[in-house]
Known about the structure:
The protein is mostly helical. The protein has helices spanning about 25-30, 45-55, 60-65, 70-120, 125-145, 145-165.
Amino acid sequence: MFKDELGDTGTNKDMRDGVETAPASFEEASINPDLIRREGFASEAEYRAYIATLGGHASVGDTVEEPLPIYDGHVLEGRLQELRVELENLRARLHVIQRQARTVVAENVRWADASAHAQLGNQPWLKLAGAMAATFIVTRGIRHLPFGTAATTAMPLILTAMNRKLAR
């Protein structure tokens, strides 16, 4: 609030004089009028004289305290706390990823089971096992057949059939 304005306290209502300025406050009335400066200073010497009337010259070194040394332990403790918080965040993320991985694996197993049921009907794994066993037995039986003699005999017949188809 400026000196030329009325305060908003309600005590100065309608106390304006003819010049339309507010009356001096209680604090201004108790201050030595020689110490009140309403305008700037004309020179550096006038400023120093004004400071001397207020109580002398105060050196900056007397008023400024030396900065407190920063203990590295506080910085390290703060960094350690930050790292702990970050580690907890990473653990929480890892937990979420593990739960999602379990869900994906479980859903893939359900999908494979449903697909097998759709293709093979009831007891699809038993039917797959029977088909694998039959394939194994047939393969072992084929290995014992004399294919050398059969291939030598069948080869000219196969080549003749191919030549006839290509000639058409």
